[in-house]
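hi! just following up on the protien thing from before. the input was this:
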Amino acid sequence: MTAIRYLKGDATDPQEAAAKPRIIVHVCNDLGKWGRGFVLALSKRWPAPERSYREAYASNSPPALGSVQFVPVETFVEVANLIGQRGIARRGQKTPPIRYDAVRTGLAAVAHRAMETGSSVHMPRIGCGLAGGRWDRIEPLIADTLLAAGVPVAVYDF
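and the predicted 3d structure came back as:
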């Protein structure tokens, strides 16, 4: 099993050969709300992930926790909108919105897609910003899903 590569940089600009398939993963809420955190960097670079997410939540069957939308944004690059948080953080809320089981389920789907396409996976420290998660809980989920499947993973600290 390989290890996570920790890099300084922008997760929307994966440090990988341009001719190799890449998946950029981030965590979304299950309310259809897009507008704070890493999604702002995604939207600034590509409109398709936000559009796909909003269209899905405007439909009669919005994505459930643990599901993933794979959105092509460039040749060899797709964004994975992983639905891994219940609602959004609110002042005074005792339980953070992150749902670790949903993140695990979503990462397993990302692992499957990465193996199918020969992609490497790139992400910020998913689930640890607005979702309120802890990296010491997320990192093992990455190891158990992506790394266990032999998928190369890079985590970016901006």
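The longest strand covers residues 77-85.
The chain has a mean pLDDT of 95.
cheers
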